[in-house]
Amino acid sequence: MSRFQLLDKIVCENILGEGVQWNQHDQSVWWTDIHAATLYRYAPAEKKLEQWTTPEPVGSFAFVEGDSRLLLALASGFAWFDLTSGRCDWIARPELALPGNRFNDGRVDRQGRFWAGTTVEQQLSDDQAAALYCLDRQQGVTRHLEGLRISNALCWSPDACKLYHADSPNYQIDVYDFDAQQGQLSNKKIFAKVPPGIEPDGACVDAEGYLWNAQWGGGRVVRYSPDGEVDRILNLPITQPTCVALGGPEMNWLFITSARKGLNSSQLSVQPHAGALFIYQTDVCGLPEAWYRPE
Fold first, then answer.
1. Phi-psi category of residue 33: left, alpha or beta, with phi > 0 → left and psi -120 to 50 → alpha
2. Which of 50, 52, 104, 152 shows a CA-CA span of 20 to 30 A to 193?
3. Contacts of 202 by beta carbon, 8 Å cutoff, 6+ apart
4. pTM attached to this predicted model
5. Cβ atoms within 10 A of the Cβ of 80, count?
6. How many Å apart are CA 50 and CA 133, to the nearest integer?
7. CB contact at 8 A, 49 and 42
């Protein structure tokens, strides 16, 4: 019996689907199409798909404790977003002066801080680089990693002692010691390497402490053991998976976003569901998504 069973695919033709998360309160899966500046919510029980337009491309987002608004990492910075009115209230725009950059992958740590990294989308100067930021209710926005090209694969071990991160063009996932109380990372090590030409994209960690990683250009999701060994591989009918999350009623569904970006007509003809959201049943349970704590 296969460890993976395809339950559903939501055909939404995302240009660059990303940032997928399961909301345990509304029992829905949320994600973004970055280049379409669109947020999606899909309720599996009702088979209902909704979407919202955002004022800029949204790389990632966070649910917020005690607040119906979302916290967005838009192209140029962090902002509150009201789903009812569409109002956007800026918090900080740390890379507004870098028009070739935009925010990308992000997640909330187990202490309620929102972390998001940027990507160099257009190289406009020789010294242009991306970075990893943290938005904290007390300290505001702080920069933690510099000199990046595509910040990705951000997630934490279940005990919050390890932070995982990838600069995708380096073809590896790194792991840091993480001081959960202070929100500081140190002691960088290589966690896992991927073959050249396959870039590590969005990631999550399951209840057993194993890391799941969507691998752009590889057409697969890989589950790694806590010591970085390949545990299992899910091969997909598309070449550009972008992000993963575990959720569902029993927390054992694997959600995978994907992209149509850069694919020509002949490539799309053999992978017509590129850009869809895929839902697989697994034999592994995930952890509830952490929410941002504003106070």
1. beta
2. 104
3. 18, 19, 20, 105, 152, 153, 213, 214, 242, 243, 244, 257
4. 0.97
5. 16
6. 29
7. yes
pLDDT digits (tens, 9 = 90+) for 9-27: 999 999 999 999 999 999 9
Task: Give the contacts of 183 (CB within 8 A, at least 6 positions apart).
Answer: 109, 111, 113, 134, 136, 139, 142
3-class SS shares of the chain: helix, strand, coil, % to 5 = 5, 55, 40
Beta strands 101-108 and 114-120, pairing class: antiparallel
The lowest-confidence range among 1-5, 148-152, 285-289 is 1-5
Report residue 99's pLDDT band, with 50, 70 and 90 as the boundaries.
confident
Residue with tokens 């590590």: 200
The residues pairing with 23 across neighbouring beta strands, listed in sequence order, are: 28
Please, what's the b/e burial string for 217-243 (b: 16 or more CB within 10 A of its CB; e: otherwise)? bbbbbbbbebeeeeebebebebbbbbb
Nearest CA among 227, 204, 225, 206 for reference residue 214: 204
Residue 268 has which token pair? Answer: 């799309």
DSSP 138: T
Structure tokens at 83: 């789903």
| Residues 294, 173, 15, 46, Cα dihedral to 10° | -60
